[in-house]
């Protein structure tokens, strides 16, 4: 028969086992909580990454659909704005613009391609709508003696240094032959972001030119008019630049209107 001492010892061991069991259960509970919080944290992180990826994808899709965010037309501090600045937001990047061009030498039609140079086409269309080109001369012509044949217009002063009073960045072509005969492109001073209102018509292939000029479209009708002007020759004012000068037959843009 167990003595009183043995009974107390047995009760003590039972109590210790109960305490150990409770401590073990508490450790297991804490471990389960820690595991659950860890899983929840991973789920939250994964959800955040997913939402960021979805938003980024949606933003990219929106930008692709609407084209460039806008065009950066900057007022030229050396001259006054002739007709203001073109709209710079939500510039179309698809479609064409047809311009009817009446000149003192005969009619032409320009077909502008928005996808080729959206900001340049947007500016060209704006200037035509404002009547900016009307009554302005085509001040420069080059012949094959200069290496390429162009008729350059778009400067109301006729000096080659005038314009609409603003400048913007070039949109260089990527084609291997960006300036075939009939190309309509924007002139610039050779410096970055110096495209303005002046443009040139390639009445021969201009493949010798570097791809530094934004291509806005083509002369879809009336290229023969430019060739007739070129046939009359140029008046060279700088002997170091043969085949480059003002057209011998003066040419005026009577009107340039959006069809």
From TrEMBL:
Superkingdom to which the source organism belongs: Bacteria
Cited function: PPIases accelerate the folding of proteins. It catalyzes the cis-trans isomerization of proline imidic peptide bonds in oligopeptides.
Domain PPIase cyclophilin-type: 103-258
Annotated spans, Disordered: 237-259
InterPro entries: Cyclophilin-like_dom_sf, Cyclophilin-type_PPIase_dom, Cyclophilin_A-like
Gene Ontology molecular function: peptidyl-prolyl cis-trans isomerase activity
Membrane-crossing segments per the record: 33-54
Compositional bias ranges of the Polar residues kind: 249-259
Name under which the protein is recorded: Peptidylprolyl isomerase
Entry keyword set: Coiled coil, Isomerase, Membrane, Transmembrane, Transmembrane helix
Protein's organism: Epidermidibacterium keratini
Pfam families, alphabetized: Pro_isomerase
Annotated coiled-coil segments of the chain: 1-32
